[in-house]
Description:
- There is one protein chain.
- By secondary structure, the chain is of the alpha+beta class.
- The chain is 61% helix and 19% strand.
- It has a three-stranded antiparallel β-sheet.
- The longest helix has 58 residues, at 2-59.
Amino acid sequence: MKKNLITVVILAISIINLVFNILLVFVFMPSTSKTNKLITDIAEVLDIEIASQTKDDSTFDVSNLAQLEQGNPINLKNDGSGDLHAVQYGLTINMDKTASDYSKVSANIEASTAMIYDMARNIIGSYTYTEVIDGETTTNKIKEELLKQLKETFNTECIYSVSFYNWVAQ
C-alpha cells in the first residue's frame, strides 16, 4: 500500500510538472520569437551597413583619383547686417580614373569650368556668413549638394568627391 501511495504522488507531481512545462512554453514562446525577430532584424541592418562601408573601401583605390582644381571668390547671401561677405575658396573635383566613362567625363568637366563655377556660386551663395563660419556641417552640406548636382549634370558616378581648400570667409 505504501508503494502505491508513493507511485500515485510521483505520478501527480509528474503531471503537475508537465502542466507547468506546457504553460511555460505557451507563455514564453511568443516573447522569445519576438526577441529573436528583433535580433535578426538588427543583425540584418548591421550587415547592410557593414557591407555598404566595406564595399566602398574595398573597391576603390585612392591612387585612381584624378583632380580638377579651380578657385574663385563668391559673395554670400545677405544676412541682414548690412555688411557684404564673401568666400574665397579652391575647389577640387576628384574623379575615379578606373571608371568606364572617365575620359569622356573629364573632358566634359574641363570644358565646363564656367558651368561648375556657376553651380558652386549658386550653392555657396545661398548661405549666409554666419552659416559658413559655423563649421564643418555647412561645408559638408555644400560639398554634398555640389557633388549631387555634378553627378546629375554629367550623368556619371565617375565623380568621387568634392573638396575645398583655402576656404576663407570675410
